[in-house]
Amino acid sequence: MVDKKIYDVCIIGAGPAGSTCAFYLTQKGFKPLILEKKEFPRDKICGDAFTQRCHTHLERMGIMQKLVDENKGHWTAVGGLVSPSGITYIGDSYAETGSHLVIAVKRKIMDEMLVRTAVSAGSELVENYSVKEVRFDSNQGNWIIKSKQIDQEEYHAKILVVADGSSSSIAQSLGYIKEPPQAVCSRAYIKAGTYNFKYDGLTIIPMKIVPGYCAFMREADNDLVFCCYIIPFGEAKTENLYHLHHDLIKNDPFISEAIGPNAELEQMKAAPIRFGGINQSYDDHLLIVGDAAGMIDPLTGEGLQYAMDAAEIAADTISEAFQNSDFTKNFLKRYHKQWMKSFGKDFKWSIRMARFCAKHPIFLDAFASMSLKKGDKFMVEWGKIMTGSKKKINFFMPKLAFPLAFEVLRLKRRFKKSEHAE
After folding, report:
1. pLDDT-flagged residues of the chain (< 50)
2. In contact, 327 and 369? CB cutoff 8 Å
3. pLDDT tens column, 283-308
4. What one-character DSSP code corresponds to residue 396?
5. What distances in angstroms separate CA 41 from CA 111, 125, 206, one per listed residue?
6. Is 193 left (phi over 0), alpha (psi -120 to 50) or beta?
7. Are 330 and 319 in contact (CB under 8 A)?
8. Does the N-terminal or the C-terminal CB of the chain have fewer CB atoms within 10 Å?
9. Mean pLDDT of the chain
10. Which fold does the domain 6-48+106-180+275-352 belong to in CATH?
11. 183-271 is classed CATH 2.60.40
12. Cα separation of 95 and 284, whole Å?
């Protein structure tokens, strides 16, 4: 009987979290195994926005320059915000700062670039491998991973990294997540040349879905991606996504104008969002990374940047674990502490802000109104906080909080005058 090969690390899921973790592990001398249930290129429902926190990882992996050279990404320089009451601000973030906050890349392109980069660096990838069961053999000190297909190989690994998305069947089967994802987003691509949209990106916040929002982003091939995010705490419910998505396309004046009468839209697709971070993303010989660990901002529904950050932290922790020959949960807990310190605690502020905005959408009007007064600099500051480049606590710093508070009071007076005039 031939002894089974025992991998140091097996990663389940080849999305940004899994592939980035694999890449960083190769840089530390490991040859991780990645198991992916589908075959590349494969799609993923997402807004396709890679923010500045992602850019750091993409540059280290050599992907950013490739995106630019091969024209596979589109910088979102010109764009802005439409507030719940319709206050509109359009600016140019690049002209103000000389750097880009976001690059739009279709996930069908980006996810394959990430995993191929990890493979080129030394990772092993097995596609079309749908995991049926993971079980830890305490006698051997290894994980046993089995496929749903009886003719596929069984794998063994010292450490298991779970990165199989928001609905993570693995984290559920092991008991680390017990609740369904709290939010949901839709996506529909609009064919190039068939829409009216003029900008690189635009966030629209219809009153009926606050604190959720809609967003447009232009892709490198000039297709346009339209997304609708339904986030809890407001009146909109996740189960109403299909109706809201199509109702907003038809009846919201800003959305319908951007799309135009001749747009060729793909059929709406949807994906669940698990936000706020799970309570325990580690255990003996185990780490949970990315969407599976709920590493998505409760205010924005964004998670790509946090998945990639956590992937690097996971790789560092795994390397330390092997150096110390310690794979216990007491040792691996440092991974959880580090990502919580890096961005997890910020999610608590996001939840507070989402609840607040649901009750007081006028503050979102004030953001747009202040941007009209102060220009791109104010909007860029807002964008950096919203995309995680700066902590949410910065919203409460005097230079932002005081002007916003005064603007809210001014808008309340203006809206009351308008009501009386009617």
Report:
1. 1-2
2. no
3. 999 999 999 999 999 999 999 999 99
4. G
5. 8, 13, 34
6. left
7. no
8. N
9. 94
10. FAD/NAD(P)-binding domain (3.50.50)
11. no
12. 49
